Amino acid sequence: FVDPDAPESLREIDARLIRGLEVLRLKLGLPVRVVSGLRLLDLGSLHSEGKAADVTSRCGLRVLYELALLIEVFAASGIGIYPEENFVHVDVGRGVSLRWVRIAGKYYYW
Q1: Alpha-carbon distance 10 to 23, whole Å?
Q2: N or C: more exposed end of the chain, with fewer CB within 10 A?
Q3: Cβ atoms < 10 Å from Cβ of 25
Q4: pLDDT tens digits, 4-21
């Protein structure tokens, strides 16, 4: 998972993210689709560092969110729900456990 067009310092996706996504897929038993991963123009975000992904699956957001909570690397970092966009955000390396949902453009944290 290397973006050949990325600058050398931004080329690699964090291996913890890839492993976490694979564990999520295995626990789910269904394909997990990455809606958004590495975003080079989103400088300063975990997406631009290869440490975040927005994912969806036909199981639905609730099941996807609840399974993400069981994966240590995601549980120790960020998991967000975007019901209007139909994806769950997961990230690694945040340094703090954070949960949120975005509804009508507003973020609600817990």
Answers
A1: 24
A2: C
A3: 15
A4: 665 555 557 999 999 999
Closest CA to 89 of 52, 63, 58: 52
Q: Of 54, 60, 57, 59, which Cα lies nearest the Cα of 74?
A: 54
Q: What is the mean pLDDT of residues 30-57?
A: 90
Paired residues of 34 in beta bridges: 55
Which residues have C-beta within 8 Å of that of residue 95, sequence separation ≥ 6?
Answer: 77
Q: What is the mean pLDDT of the chain?
A: 91
pTM (predicted TM-score): 0.88
What's the rounded Cα separation, in Å, for the pair 92 and 12?
Answer: 14
Contacts of 87 (CB under 8 A, 6+ apart): 35, 36, 54, 55, 56, 61
N residues, the chain: 110
Q: What is the DSSP letter of 13?
A: P
> Which uninterrupted H or E stretch holds 98?
strand 98-103
